[in-house]
Amino acid sequence: MLSDLAISRAAVRRPLHEVAADMGIAPHLLEPYGTAAAKISLAAIDELKSRPRAKYVVVTAITPTPLGSGKTTTTVGLGQGFGQIGKLGIVAIRQPSMGPTFGIKGGAAGGGYSQVVPMEALNLHLTGDMHAVTAAHNLLSAMIGNHLHKGNRLGLDPHEITWRRVLDVNDRELRNIVTGLGGADDGTPRQTGFDISAASEVMALLSLCTSLRDLRERMGRIVVGSTRDGEPVTAEMLKVAGAMTAMLTDAIKPNLMQTVEQTPVLVHCGPFGNIATGNSSVVADLIGIHAGDYLVTEAGFGADIGAEKFFNIKCRASGLTPDAAVLVATVRDLKTHSGKYRVVAGRPLPPEMLAENPDDVLAGAANLRRQIANVRRHGVTPVIAVNAFPTDHPSEHRAILDVAAEEGVRATISHHFTDGGKGAAELAEAVAEACAEPSDYHRLYPDDLPLVDKIKVIAREMYGADGLDVSPLAARQLEKYERAGYGSLPVCIAKTHLSLSADPSIKGAPTGWRLPVREVRASVGAGFIYPICGDMRTMPGLSSAPAAEIIDIDDDGQIVGLS
Amino acid sequence: MLSDLAISRAAVRRPLHEVAADMGIAPHLLEPYGTAAAKISLAAIDELKSRPRAKYVVVTAITPTPLGSGKTTTTVGLGQGFGQIGKLGIVAIRQPSMGPTFGIKGGAAGGGYSQVVPMEALNLHLTGDMHAVTAAHNLLSAMIGNHLHKGNRLGLDPHEITWRRVLDVNDRELRNIVTGLGGADDGTPRQTGFDISAASEVMALLSLCTSLRDLRERMGRIVVGSTRDGEPVTAEMLKVAGAMTAMLTDAIKPNLMQTVEQTPVLVHCGPFGNIATGNSSVVADLIGIHAGDYLVTEAGFGADIGAEKFFNIKCRASGLTPDAAVLVATVRDLKTHSGKYRVVAGRPLPPEMLAENPDDVLAGAANLRRQIANVRRHGVTPVIAVNAFPTDHPSEHRAILDVAAEEGVRATISHHFTDGGKGAAELAEAVAEACAEPSDYHRLYPDDLPLVDKIKVIAREMYGADGLDVSPLAARQLEKYERAGYGSLPVCIAKTHLSLSADPSIKGAPTGWRLPVREVRASVGAGFIYPICGDMRTMPGLSSAPAAEIIDIDDDGQIVGLS
Predict the structure, then answer these.
(1) The dihedral formed by the CA atoms of A254, A255, A260 and A264, expressed in degrees to the nearest 10
(2) CA separation, residue B22 to residues A32, A147, B15, B29, B283 (Å)
(3) Residues 6+ apart with CB under 8 A from B446
(4) Any idea what DSSP says for residue B511?
(5) Is the CB of A135 less than 8 angstroms away from the CB of B125?
């Protein structure tokens, strides 16, 4: 089989205005950005409203290994699969972060014959939205430093500044830094650091806003720290929320691309999956929901995290209600949940994992059962997509199908990686059937539930924990946020995606444990409170052999080495 | 008169493919980026080669005040002026840096009726080239840190790393920082800092390269520091030059925009004027030189700096030969060179400067005379453009014309700010006449002159210094660079633009002084050696009332407050 890059390069692309026309998006709503992508004006939300509403499908997964489950590939494949059954599928995904593209993970365009093309454009800069978020975020950082330097009118406490800086690069040296050294004109010495741009609250609030006006208001609500009297200091008070919004007037427009099979793809925003929502933008989905027969949107990580945040934060912001959820599972995921194997990012699978072993698959089924329950808990019908690998054995696929049958869930083996849309046609049929059933979608908790109880509900009902261990610091913070009037916000739990528990090494579906809540932070602009449960890394590092070392241009000026 | 933003918004723009067609640029060479700009494929350089060569005009200035002389406005106005005399002028300018846009300086689209439109697009992100440079620069920084962290195969000396990080924001707190704090996995603690992105060597080398292949080779030659044995360590040795180039495959393409009068504008690259060349890109000029009757390109700062670097560095790289140079002068510039007034950025002019006073203008003429000589020293014919202000008095204009007549230089009073191209028609006529004379363009020094002598020639013949005061450190560095084989590179002097001397407070055309050479650095990838003569700030700060505070979006979602 050809490499992802070779498949991408060989793909025949359709002019994007034709792709848009099929979606009901008229030329005046479309701004081409090179030949790879076009931006869609937010006016499309209103102009498309009278068109029929698409079925809304979220693609999630069981708890993945560090290698991932091929969720983007499945999302793209399913979109293409709808084409095979005579329906127009619209795909909605996040913009990849460039940090990991040059690190260990590589790009995030899907893979094989289920890819967004051209993959170089998707993986590198795209239309610059990530950079615009970075710039807006760091303008606020500079304005904070300038405010301290120029007399500190607001009485901002330098020790209570929580707003850091961001860059879209894997740079461990920037995690913990001291700034403001030098001389009298070089600012106030302070300990701070950089996060990767995907972890910026600006990214989170861009992904959750519903209009430019809403973006402006959320920007103003960003809390950067507090005064010496403990009062919150906002971007509005620093008079920078307007300029930050002005920097994002293009970035707020979703990007239209296409798959190798010319299926429309909306690419927009890339918030982190742990400290933020891990879901693509609300505005892209508000356009996509009236642009085809099925809108297939991807949620980051496993169903306990990405889908839970999709149901309770993203859908809360958008007002959209999902019709079905695809749970991606792979043989190697389930084998890993048997607890017998250790999978490490950037290294080959343990060879013994490749031997035929349906018993290991069954031994790991508890995680799949829990994630099925997590989707059903929101009143949504799950469909299992087994993302097939050439190293899988038929008996192992059968084991997964047996578990699905026991749970009464539709399931198919999907060959979209090798066969594109054709390989996902059966999956598309199953999803179409699930969508035909009435959706009983509902959120997990009401807005007026106290914050600590919201965390408790998620810990118990999604993760299978017995309860919470709230640190004294976290308890004080929760109390402070309730007092500050943030109690009605949803919670966005920052937890490892590699386990249902807070310990990444615990596989399957552990019971008899409690969720530690170490600390609680607020993204007031984005509109959620995020409890920190375990060590969250918000700035990745590079590996001993980063992908950057093999990426280059060839003699024809084409990019090589991207994967 | 309307505000710049109001004029920009009212401008009727022509579809860019029509603008390009007039330039002989076929649709297959053009990639639209939104409606504001389009990228031009570098294939245009070859495809346009058989078309007639345009006359090549550089716009420079006398030594400006901190308020600037309106050089971009004049460049744009002159381009429009050629339209008034039945010729096609092509304008080539740098991309503005966003840091100053939100700081004290505001945008850099020109002004009044001589503007590049839409000014919001030009001033904010444009097509993302500046961000791509930032990302490529910082990937190298991360790879350096990672190299140290993962065993330091090359034996890079942490104390000898000269490669910093960059961001396009005015953030004084980032000038001097300590990175790599935290724990064992968080890198190696080091003292370092950020420069503004315009000061990145990646920006300088992008502006000087002639092709993607040349870019790749220059990238590999970047020196980031040295080993413990004193051997240079390059981006090639760190295996990151390919990835950095891959990140710039779009950024290398010049951006096509237009003026309020639909004159074509090539916007490309924005290297700093002191530690780098301060000139727009070579590739843009290689396209523009066959795309019209006159290619009008702007060089940063005064003729002693920007034009000198244009003649001796940019033209050396491009192989192009200029036909004329426009020297922009304003009444307030000349009055300031009388030494009687102090002009401060961000503050109104001293009111007494506005009183009619042709004697002050004459008292400041020495600077104008020196800059005329500086242009002539390169065998190029100067034309003086007096950029008229409503507060000027006719007697003051006459004083400048008298000086010009004494020097035998064509001069016109230009009203392009208030009257657009019509106001610059006379200037266009004068420039056309100058271009009709044979050009005797030559560089100031041969490649094989020792580095220290190159500096001496510039100091004497451009700045009017008696000689050099080379510090012991600088002398050692010059010797080191000669030994390393960099002796044939041109020198790019980092000096204040506010004086012909190295002291920004000294006005006019001082004599009897020596140029201090404090330190010498090498931009081996960009291909020049840069002696530091005085304090060079490579990361600006924000003021007490930054422009960011008044920029916002209005109820229609339009950007307001940009200037």
Answers:
(1) 40
(2) 21, 49, 12, 13, 19
(3) none
(4) -
(5) yes
Task: Find the length of chain B.
Answer: 563
Identify the closest residue of chain B to A547 by CA–CA distance. B243
Q: Which among A383, A537, A415 is positioned nearest to A84, based on CA atoms?
A: A415
Best of A202, A217, A553, A555 to disrupt the B interface (most B CBs within 10 Å) is A553
A-B interface: how many C-beta pairs under 8 angstroms?
245
Measured distance CA(B21)–CA(B15) in Å, rounded: 10
At residue B111's C-alpha, the angle toward residues B106 and B112, to 5°, is 135
Backbone angles phi, psi at A423, to 5 degrees: -70, -15
Q: Tokens 């001293």 appear where?
A: B350
Which residue type is seen at B239?
Answer: K
ipTM of this predicted complex?
Answer: 0.96
Dist CA A411 CA A448 (whole Å):
37
CA distance A345 to A332: 14
Q: Which residues of B touch A178 (CB under 8 A)?
A: 177-178, 181
- A21: Cβ contacts below 8 Å, ≥ 6 apart: A27
C-alpha span between A97 and A197 (Å, rounded): 8
Instruction: Return the residue matching tokens 């950007």.
Output: B559
For A139, the closest chain B residue by CA position comes to B169
Q: Alpha-carbon distance A461 to A442, whole Å?
A: 14
Q: How many CA atoms lie within 13 A of B558 on its CB side?
A: 11
Q: In a structure prediction context, what are the per-residue pLDDT tens digits for chain A, which is 563 residues long?
A: 899 989 999 999 999 999 999 999 999 999 999 989 999 999 999 999 999 999 999 999 999 998 889 999 999 999 999 999 999 999 999 999 999 999 876 778 999 999 999 999 999 999 999 999 999 999 999 999 999 999 999 999 999 999 999 999 999 999 999 999 999 999 999 999 999 999 999 999 999 999 999 999 999 999 999 999 999 999 999 999 999 999 999 999 999 999 999 999 999 999 999 899 999 999 999 999 999 999 999 999 999 999 999 999 999 999 999 999 999 999 999 999 999 999 988 788 999 999 999 999 999 999 999 999 999 999 999 999 999 999 999 999 999 999 999 999 999 999 999 999 999 999 999 999 999 999 999 999 999 999 999 999 999 999 999 999 999 999 999 999 999 999 999 999 999 999 999 999 999 999 999 999 999 999 999 999 999 998 889 999 999 999 999 999 999 999 999 98
- Cβ atoms of A203 and A276 within 8 Å: the answer is yes
Please tell me which of the candidates A131, A139, A176 has its beta carbon nearest to residue B182: A176
Residue B541 in 3-state DSSP? Answer: coil
Token pair belonging to B194: 């950020």
Q: How far apart are CA A319 and CA A309, in angstroms?
A: 14
Burial B96-106 (b: 16+ CB within 10 A, else e): bbbbbbbbbbb
Q: Which domains does chain A have, with CATH numbers?
A: 15-99+118-128+251-436 (3.40.50.300), 129-246 (3.30.1510.10), 451-533 (3.10.410.10)
Nearest residue in chain B measured CA to CA from A177? B179
Do A544 and B177 count as a contact with CB atoms less than 8 A apart?
Answer: no
Tell if the CB–CB gap between B559 and A146 is shorter than 8 Å.
no
Cross-chain residue pair B246–A546, CB shorter than 8 Å: no
> Tokens 């054709």 sit at which residue?
A422
